[in-house]
Amino acid sequence: xxxxxxxxxxxxxxxxxxxxxxxxxxVIDDDPSVCKTVGMLLEDHGYRPxxxxxxxxxxxxxxxxxxxxxxxxxxxxxxxxxxxxERLKAIDDRMCIIVMTAYPNLETATETMRRGTCDYIPxxxxxxxxxxxxxxxxxxxxxxxxxxxxxxxxxGQRIRAExxxxxLTLRQLSDRTDLTTSQLSQVELGKNAASVWALxxxxxxxxxxxxxxxxxx
Length: 217
What we know:
This protein is of the alpha/beta class.
């Protein structure tokens, strides 16, 4: 199998604010170098990968331990990739499967998609393409969520921007919400996590639905 094209230096610590450490990814490829490289890349981006060069053992393992996502090479000597996909979907139909192949063609893509895969990546691939495919799968499954500190910052940023857009002072917003100016300031700075009750009071006072305030976060 052709190894994936990756940058030799993995940028450790530069993980986005999305939380991924709870997401388990099964990587199945008969090429040990691909398994090693992909495994390291996923770890660098906060995922929890488990790699297998033996497709049969991978399927047996998947029956004992649950995975949200699987990355499967389509051509392997022990088991055909399509058969691996069928076995994994039989174990857990909710599992999102990403196909990796050095021999991309429309027929293969159509066949694997028909059997329930959620994405298809031709080899050699860039690391950005791989991570983007994983992130798409996670978003589809609703697995990625924002780090709490970053979430507080983003909410505070939205509240402050809307307050300033309406030319309201902290004192005026305080009068509308029955929250102190100190409490509101801490929320806007992202230093304190506001309760749902407090966020509802703030959003209502700004003429927004709470869902609108939190949309996309």
